[in-house]
Amino acid sequence: MRNAFYLIFLLNFLVSCSQKQNESIRKSEDSFESSFTTQLGKTYQLSEPSEKLLSQYEEAKANLEANPDDVEALIWYGRRTAYLGQYGKAIDIYSEGIEKFPQEPRLYRHRGHRYISIREFDQAISDLEKAAELIQGTPNEIEPDGMPNALNIPVSSLHGNIYYHLGLAYYLVGDYEKAYDAYVKCRESGSHYDNIVSSTHWLYMIQQRLENPAKADSLLAPIHADSTVIENQSYADLCNLYKGWVPVDSLIQQGPGGNPSNDAVRYGVANWYLYNGDTSRAKNMMEGLLETNSFASFGYIAAEQDWIRMFNQN
Q1: What is the pTM of this model?
Q2: Given CA atoms 45, 83, 132, 204 in this order, what sign does their dihedral have?
């Protein structure tokens, strides 16, 4: 009897140890980075994700585990991972996907986006150029939103997002001619006004950088005062500034920032001052943007690159 009791105790003990070990392995597989360091050496602590984001992540992970050969499930697992600020892990997910689906442009599009997030711009360009190559001759398609707008109406497309991020990557390394070509293709990829204002904003800034103000102004032709945007209001506001319809003071943001849309406006206004010869004001605005915690926004990343190139910061 004592031997039987001892045997049961031992089995329970071993099962408990095994469960704890498996739990430890699962935790280790889901271990997340807690901070991010920028090219300027600034380290930011990642904010705790909401229960909703964590739930969506777990759901996407379980879906992929149940459907390991489903490229859609893989893409959403990568997207949900990136929304937690885990860009390196998202890149690993897309890389594994590319091994399985080497001709899937969406995987290169999303991995390229996240290479921008971690400031690996050459890798981003390589991926997004590959994505652009793979979509040649294919019909465009609406890209579903991971974080839907208030109207729950997706406003971007696969082709548009590929060329948008490719143009941004070129812009960030200072290759303005290629950035311009990419944003022209982005603007041509769809007639939705949200797409027009976002691409036109970058096209205008690029030609100003190339010291072609007349050409920059000519690119504003598709901008209309009575057009409606759904989610790209920041770009619409900037285009209205470039058209001379609103004063620059009306767009200057107050407060700590940290919102991607606000960062886009701050960066655009800083550049407006730069184009108009007020380098000191432009520098101060970029410095203010870089003091926020919005290290992953495109406005922040662009300001960071300008700061490094223009103001000799390392």
Answers
A1: 0.88
A2: negative
Question: What CA–CA distances, in Å, run from 199 to 73, 81, 120, 196?
Answer: 29, 27, 22, 5
pLDDT at residue 250, rounded to an integer: 93
Q: How much is the average pLDDT of 150-178?
A: 93
Contact 115, 123 (CB under 8 A): yes
pLDDT digits (tens, 9 = 90+) for 69-100: 999 999 999 999 999 999 999 999 999 999 99
Residue 30: what are its φ and ψ, rounded to 5°? Answer: -100, 15
Q: Which residue has the tokens 């919005």?
A: 294
70, two tokens: 């489903």
Distance between CA 80 and CA 228 in Å, rounded?
A: 29
- Full 3-state SS string of 115-139: HHHCCCHHHHHHHHHHHHHHCCCCC
